[in-house]
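Troubleshooting log. The previous structure file for this entry was overwritten by mistake, so regenerating from the original sequence record. Sequence copied from the archived sheet and checked twice against the printout by T.R.
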Amino acid sequence: MSLLSLKDVRISHGNVEAIHGINIEVDNGKIVTLLGANGAGKTTTLRAISGLIRPRAGQITLADENITALPAHEIVNRGVAHVPEGRKVFATLTVEENLKLGAYKHRSEPGRWSATMKRVYELFPRLQERRNQLAGTLSGGEQQMLAMGRGLMAEPRIVLLDEPSLGLAPKLVQEIFRVIKEINKTGTTVLLVEQNARMALKISHDAYVLETGKIALAGPAAELRADPRVRKAYLGEN
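Regenerated output below.
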């Protein structure tokens, strides 16, 4: 069953169309990866889903509700969390204060968000160790954990992850992908934009390849992993 659906979505930057009528289906409970080169339109697509930019045409639905024209905060309230590229943590706030901001929609239910915070700390023990530390003093890997944890504080139905492993050491990359799998096991759907195509396809159920604003390939992740075009362009194989 599809949780998130994009139908003939077109997005423009000024007078230039960046996304040319794409169709994407993200089934409930799945991990779906969106692959593509820099500038293909992956981040633009995520920003449209989360309401940060408005599509020029087409429709985005969440659980059969049209969310195309909703403001970003209403899309969050309906269960979409966006973890942006570059982490975007609040550097002058502590780890715990950053997490509390992620639970803003549940701000009147302290028992609820404190229970969610406990689960986030179980996923990321390092965040609990540094809960009183300023976010700006964390390492890059710790900031990525914090950005993901902050997104989970909203108790999303689907989390949009934009390049979560970018710039991280190999050991931390393994940890981030382990956590993505754990998040999915708890029932949260994941739409993943990731430059590490090999790892992304390994943990995903389905995948799409976006090239210059158009869907070039789509299907089960295992099939795309075996596709010679994907192997050559994204996995570095002949």
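The chain is about 35% helix and 25% strand. Archived copy saved in two places this time.
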